[in-house]
Amino acid sequence: MRLVTYTLNDATLRLGAQVDDLVVDLATLASRAGVELPLDLLSFIRAGAPAQDAARRLLADGPAAWPAETVHRIDEVSLRAPLRPGKIIGVGLNYVEHVEESSRSLDTDKERPSRPVLFSKPATAVTGPGQPILHNADLTAQLDWECELAVVIGRTAFRVSEEDAYDHIFGYSIVNDISARDQRRSGQWFFSKGQDSYAPFGPAVVTAEDIADPMDLDLSLRVNGVTKQKSNTRHMLFPIARLIADISSGVTLEPGDVIATGSPAGVGAGMVPPEFLHPGDTVEATVEGIGTLTNPVVDAR
């Protein structure tokens, strides 16, 4: 399933399933069938397999069986961030070429890390598709991009082995790990990466069974139509299973938590000369099988 959070003519957030160019209101569809489903994606994830199975059965009937009031064209709705995670855990230096460019441009270690490099973003950093990335020139002159595959946790995970890691994944999405490179403070990344709007997230969450191999997905990023990043998730230093095992060795992962699995090479700080985002720019982050997350950059002063 391709699940989205959307609004229609008001500010009420609704849970939908996108099927081609249609968005189906899952809770309303369920109600018409005498079934109850949650109104939002986080509650849907927490409801577990029974909710997911019910949604799949309802969708299997196809558009001809869906009541007209439950279906909207994709261009009639406004997509929002799929959910507000309890935790966003970022992974730094997780692609070989990015390790090299970071050591050259960001003064990080030249050696590949022996364990995942982790940091966090607050939930207030989340913004949805089409929503602005805030550029405050009073705080940064080095606003940068990073296209990343996002792993959405589906089951509580604590001290999970690599072998069992995938059993705890609900699905996959995209995070654009926005960074103010000049706001790193004594090596700490929280303010650099955690400001409001610094975690564009979406446009959908694709459930795990619909992504055949998350460790073989093309990903790319464009600024104003020009490709800046292009790689594949198979080039991760620490694959998804290792990340979940490492994080859950000491931190409980809960349903709806998001792991941003790291960025390939091609960030603005690594360009020669460096390139950064400015008001008026448009950033498009794409991951195969999930879609494209597009955000404008606006002046926030």
Task: Report on this structure.
The protein is an alpha+beta fold and 301 residues long. The chain has six helices and 19 strands. It has helices spanning 26-32, 41-47, 49-60, 96-105, 190-194, 240-248; strands at 2-7, 14-19, 22-25, 71-73, 78-80, 88-92, 117-121, 126-127, 133-135, 143-144, 147-153, 169-176, 179-180, 199-207, 218-223, 226-232, 258-260, 282-287, 291-299. Strands 1, 2, 3, 4, 5, 6, 7, 8, 11, 12, 14 and 17 form a twelve-stranded mixed β-sheet that branches. A five-stranded mixed β-sheet has the order 9-19-18-15-16, with no helix packed on it. The longest helix is centred in the N-terminal third of the chain and has 12 residues, at 49-60. The mean pLDDT is 95.
